[in-house]
Amino acid sequence: MIRTLNTSFMWHSVLLVSFLWLAGCSLLDRQKEPQILEVRTDQDVYESVGRGKKVRISMVTDDPDNDELDYLWVASGGVFEQSGLDTLVDLFQDSVTVIWRAPGAVGVYDLIVEVSDGKSGTSTTSTLQIFVTQAGPTADAGGDQIVAYSDTLEVVLDGTSSSDPDRDDLRYVWEQIEGPGVTLTSSATGTPSFGAVAPADYVFVLKVRDDIADTTGSVTSETDTVIVRVNDRGGRGF
Q1: What does the alpha-carbon distance between residue 87 and residue 67 come to, in Å, rounded to a whole number?
Q2: Residue ranges of domains in the chain, CATH in brackets
Q3: Is residue 64 a contact partner of residue 94, using CB atoms and an 8 Å limit?
Q4: Strand pairing of 54-62 and 107-116?
Q5: pTM of this prediction?
Q6: In DSSP terms, which residues pair with 165 in a beta bridge?
Q7: How far apart, in Å, are the Cα atoms of 130 and each of 41, 88, 108, 115?
Q8: 175 FRET partner, CA 20 to 30 A, in 16, 87, 97, 233?
């Protein structure tokens, strides 16, 4: 009995197996791009921060292939000071934290992060906008004073406890609103002085301004009031 080998069937079988093997390899080798699931900061909903302040930014990413991810942070202003270590959320998700310090100029800044796995040939980006604002200063005209009158009396006011949360240099604006008119010496400083012309109550108000030139202009504080009671030979207090 002569047996013949069905070569046509064999070749079809080889081709089918090869096709299935290649298809399987293609499915196994196909890389999925990483995803950015969430980007948030430790600021309020408006994402605003004072000049020079730090912002903590947290991001949750996902890579279906569980590849190691690379992160590239770019900002239109300010600097990134610190990058936190990856924290594993689940099998495929990572949580990453960075610290960004706001610049010294008021404005809107874009913070862009690019995430790539180095294998899929593509990357994923996300943009976060943060508003850098300028906080207003606070005037402090010092405590009320009671002094005895004399021909040589020189009274010194003290506004040096005025403050600015952005640590800007302050300009002082003093104004007398009650009492016999006097001239303040060094009136643009925190410690002006005047010579009392008679026993009376001398009332002054102080405003301070952070001398920052930007699109919104300088910010001026609310006024603070100080009373200097100049008594004749001791007199009465407040």
Answers
A1: 14
A2: 35-133 (2.60.40.10), 145-231 (2.60.40.10)
A3: no
A4: unpaired
A5: 0.57
A6: none
A7: 10, 27, 6, 20
A8: 233
